[in-house]
């Protein structure tokens, strides 16, 4: 009988990734992956010091070979029961090309790599954003983003430099792509007896969220928070709790969908004036 532990894969060693690993990783082997080797090492040491069985893995999610190596490393350590992809860039952190490669292509590569290795009964959660929910309706682009082979994804005309000229637009399109790509991938994951969903967080209190609040859109973001039903910024633990649910047996009939977790921001924007 194998003595290998169940494996939980988390990409992104920042605020959300750390909270998710701590919430869900006890009793499993956590494979924590990040591009920033220094940040990854700090978080691995912190998790190990508090009793977690954790392995650090440096990954560049925009590169197929790097993502495939992560999936292979996770699979040899035991049955992969959970995959949580939080790695990404925000508009104030990166230019258009980097956002499309990391946020959009990176998600597609992760779905492709882990679909064949996730265990029956396992589940995946991919972090999108409420920005994707607020994208202007474009059914044809949605279809292309959902179904185009990953190797050709960045060749789509709707992603060309003349179509996407700023980082904010790139982020919105990338996060919409995450949502529709997960929906499409749920069929292949389902053939393995696994589920996969996305979460679209609102404004979360992480270093990335703080940078956005200090950026060009900060005033508008603070206005959205003030007008929302909860009236507050989200915490990494808020997201970790939702991830825990979606990975659990209680969510066994949920797959191929996106869950908006934004404190009511989108509802407030869509609500008719009082």
Can you describe this structure?
The protein has 274 residues and is of the alpha/beta class. It has one domain (7-267): Rossmann fold (3-Layer(aba) Sandwich). Helix content is 47%, strand content 16%. The protein contains eleven helices and seven strands. Helix 3 packs parallel to helix 4 (96-114) and helix 4 (96-114) runs parallel beside helix 7 (167-191). The mean pLDDT is 94.
Instruction: State the order of secondary-structure elements, H for helix, E for strand.
Output: EHEHEHEHEHHHEHHHEH
CATH class call? Alpha Beta
Could you say what the CATH topology is called? Rossmann fold
What is the typical, i.e. mean, pLDDT?
Answer: 94
Helix count?
11
The total count of strands amounts to 7
Structural class per helix/strand content? alpha/beta
What is the makeup of the main sheet?
7 strands, parallel
Quick recap:
Helix content is 47%, strand content 16%.
Q: What are the salient characteristics of this protein?
A:
274 residues; alpha/beta; Rossmann fold; 47% helix; globular
Topology at a glance:
Layout: E1 7-11, H1 15-24, E2 29-34, H2 37-49, E3 53-58, H3 64-77, E4 80-85, H4 96-114, E5 118-127, H5 130-133, H6 139-147, H7 167-191, E6 195-201, H8 207-213, H9 218-227, H10 236-247, E7 258-261, H11 265-270
Parallel strand pairs: 1-2, 1-4, 2-3, 4-5, 5-6, 6-7
Helix pairs in contact: 1-10, 3-4, 4-7, 6-7
């Amino acid at each position: 009988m194998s003595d290998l532990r169940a494996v939980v894969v988390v990409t992104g060693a920042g605020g959300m990734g750390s909270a998710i690993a701590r919430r869900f990783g006890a009793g499993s082997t956590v494979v924590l992956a990040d591009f920033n080797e220094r940040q990854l090492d700090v978080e691995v040491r912190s998790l190990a010091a508090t009793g977690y069985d954790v392995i650090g893995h440096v990954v560049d999610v925009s590169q197929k070979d790097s993502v495939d190596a992560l999936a292979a490393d996770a699979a040899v350590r035991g049955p992969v029961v959970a995959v949580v992809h939080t790695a990404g860039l925000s508009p104030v952190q990166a230019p258009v090309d980097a956002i499309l490669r990391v946020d959009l292509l990176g998600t597609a590569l992760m779905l492709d790599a882990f679909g064949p290795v996730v265990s029956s009964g396992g589940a995946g959660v991919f972090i999108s954003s409420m920005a994707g929910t607020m994208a202007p309706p474009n059914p044809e682009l949605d279809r292309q983003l959902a179904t185009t082979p990953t190797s050709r994804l960045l060749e789509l005309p709707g992603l060309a430099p003349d179509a996407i000229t700023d980082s904010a637009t790139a982020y919105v399109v990338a996060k919409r792509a995450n949502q529709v790509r997960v929906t499409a991938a749920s069929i292949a994951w389902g053939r393995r007896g696994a589920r996969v969903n996305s979460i679209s967080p609102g404004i979360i209190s992480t270093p990335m969220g703080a940078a956005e609040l200090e950026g060009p859109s900060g005033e508008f973001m603070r206005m959205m928070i003030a007008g929302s039903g909860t009236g507050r910024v989200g915490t990494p633990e808020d997201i970790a709790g939702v991830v825990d649910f979606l990975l659990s047996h209680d969510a066994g009939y949920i797959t191929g969908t996106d869950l908006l977790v934004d404190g009511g921001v989108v509802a407030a924007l869509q609500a008719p004036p009082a």
